[in-house]
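Handout, tutorial session.
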Amino acid sequence: MAIGRAGFGSGQCRIASLPAIASPSLAPDLMAGLRVHAPSSRVRPMPRQAPAPIILVFDSGLGGLSVYREVAGARPDARFVYAADDAMFPYGRIAEGRLTERILGLMGDLIAAHRPDIVVIACATASTIALPALRARFAVRFVGTVPAIKPACAGSATRRVSVLGTEGTVQREYTRALIREYAAGCEVTLVGSADLAALAEAKLNGEPVADAAIAAEIAPCFVVDGDARTDTIVLACTHYPLLRDDISRLSPWRVALIDPAPAIARRVVELIGPPQNAAAPAPALAVFTSGRSPSPFVTAALAAGPARTRTGPHPR
């Protein structure tokens, strides 16, 4: 409701002139207790709240939703753009040079169209291949996704850790360098899954996925080595936390599943600060390079964060 300025109309009241009356002088002790409220140069206007930041979450498909919900929980006041390069899914089977060129081109379009304050590359394959080139070309800040090998090895009691990723991620030198630096005496098993990301996409879109298919993909993660066995699995693809409940249910024994999303959300807050407002100023925008609209299941996944989703065209 707008609040207008009040004023007198035709029925305004006129106050008659009154004779001046000399006011009595105030006693000195009363005068001593009075404070004069004069304007002060030290008074500052109330600071304006900073505008809500724009956060772009980018992935090859729907796996980045596992990251989106964590970042949206950490910055519920932000405006979100969720961009999925589903026209080229899955990334793990594309040559590195071609993939880097594609991601650079897409990111240029997305940054020009949405002007994000920060970009989250919610894809381990894209991060390990293209993140240095992205940071070199664009001034916007980037947060990448890397296999959480360091915390997994630090927390393992049996010193037996498996890294479950795409075939490309587990073969990449970047992943092996992380193991050399952070394994801390752990035996690390690398498991490259050819189909688990696609199974996660199918399940999120409401398609039936057989338990046996998931169980076959995760089975190599469970290693028995004498009296010791795997107690920690690194989910090294952002699609895999979408199947977290299924993986836990189908595991032959209980293991810790390490998801990189909470650490990514903490890093975003470190870079752009904590929430400034209580709620999101606008719904999240979903952009798919294929031009398709998100399924009801995808819309529900986006809406599970503080912001509700709307769809928009790809900028190209």
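The second record follows below. Compare its token runs with those of the first.
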Amino acid sequence: MVEISSLRRRRAAVAVVIAIICAAGAVLLISCATEDVVIAPPPMIAGAKFVGSETCAACHKEARTFKFTLHARVQIPGEGERAAAQGCEACHGPGSKHVAAGGGRGKFIINPGKDPEACFQCHLDKQAEIHLQYHHPIAEGRVSCVSCHNPHGENIHKAPGMFVARDNDLCAQCHREQTTPHVYEHEALREGCTICHNVHGSINPKLLTERDNNLCLKCHAQVPTAPGLIFIGEVNHTSFLQQGTCFSAGCHTAVHGSNISPQLRY
């Protein structure tokens, strides 16, 4: 009875600690989601003045719900006209000339879907990544930020939830061969494409986060059973690891999944 009582007390203590950790995490998430962010000044349009998101809402349905989104929490620093540049005009520029022209695509207004520079004013890290050696062709104009992200959405991303990384359906719109179901799946796909790929740009081919075997060995632990020998999955991989990467040495060529081999081979 003493041992059972002690075990119950330890379990209760663990439960309290877990509850505290979860509560702290929830507070952190809430603060990150609700805290206003100060960014760079908005793009400017010669001769135009700010009219406010309410004016935009008369024609654009996106503006009617924009105040509930994350982008709407952005604060534009400055005073006077610049202080008025909140909401829609923080990204699209002052809209008076656009309104006077009766609207129209690209008329006296900035469209981040056509020109990513509007996004790069705040997302400087992504601007740097798309200029790396291997990158999604955003700078070339073949895709744009809005191809994957919905700037007017409640969670910014088109995919459900906050993280595009968790929803391969978004990547599957273009990369269908890699994301189609297979008889023998690569479990890493359950974690999302970004577990292996830097989606905006990388110094490694295929946008990989790492170019060598270390990428695979993060999940497939190497077990030294004897001096100089490395076993992975109860198979001696010592000589295999010297021939190249797991996916380029002729071993696991079907890294996204295979229909014929549980070892992920074509």
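Points raised in discussion: Residues 37 and 86 are 12 Å apart (CA to CA).
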